[in-house]
Amino acid sequence: MSQNAVEISNLSLKIGGKTILDTIDLEIPKGEAVVIAGRNGSGKTTLLKCLAGVLFPDKGRIAYHKGLSKKEIGFISDKVSLFENYSIKQGIAFHKDVYKIEDFDPALINELNLDKGQKIKDLSAGERILFHLSLILSQKPEILLVDEIIHAADPNIREVFLESVIDLLENHKTTLVMVNHTFSEIEKIPERILIMERGRFIADEKSETLGEKLKKIITETKIPEEIPCLFKRELTHLKEYYIYPFEEELRKKFPYDYKNVHLNEIIKAFIGGQYAQKRNQ
Question: Does this model's pTM top 0.90?
Fold first, then answer.
């Protein structure tokens, strides 16, 4: 356990009789940046809430590395509705008191030029995101859990948010578990990609190797069934086939032009494949 920030074993959870998490096993090493993707309803946010202690599983175990305190786990929910009736000043004071924080860095709040007497409920979605992040950063978290929120912020706030997260990863070796669908802006962050479907992981790959394992074929004709196709997309007179897992032997046996794919398109292929499978059931 000494090398892992968190270990999950046999984790299962039902809500309203529906299985949301299905016997999940997962180890996340200290300092690793993990991004979880998958279609809506696949269990991503539920898993994050279990890691944050907001939800409790029906069975299974979540173990954090020895000596980790609640203060050292930061969770930024997709709701971002913390302390709505407080002013910014009151929210900061309350957070400092709860987590016994002596120093609070107002740099993110100052960057937005906010009046600290302003009510939190009157902030924009992006302003709430940075306010919430500033509170979490004051905890100096060992583990940071981030739900899919950056899509709600304008480009400037997204950039400030991501720069702050990258700084945390590089300078404090924080372990990051982040739920996100769009990878074009966060492509430099994840070391590891997890794809969820129906409460389980259908892919667990290092970012640097995922691109080697997924390729694209563009052709006018149907490819042989022996080629493992994750997702197919019909164009005007062409077909796009996303091949996973790709192995070099395929080049010899089936001499197509196997194109490299960017991470954002890889995730779209996985999610598109999940929806296609659901339609065909």
Answer: no
Alpha-carbon gap, residue 74 to 134, rounded angstroms: 11
| Contact indicator for 36, 212 with CB cutoff of 8 Å | no
Highest average pLDDT, of 10-14, 61-65, 104-108, 136-140, comes from 10-14
Residue 117: closest CA among 146, 151, 93: 93
b/e per residue, 118-137, with b = 16+ CB within 10 A? eebeebeebbbbbbbbbbbb
| Segment 198-238, tens digit of pLDDT | 899 988 999 888 889 999 999 999 999 999 999 998 888 89
- 8 Å CB contact between 139 and 173: no
In sequence order, the β-bridge partners of residue 219 are: 239
On the 0-12 / 13-18 / 19+ scale of CB atoms within 10 A, 29 is middle
Nearest residue to 58 via CA among 7, 4, 18: 18
Distance (Å, whole) CA 238 – CA 100: 61
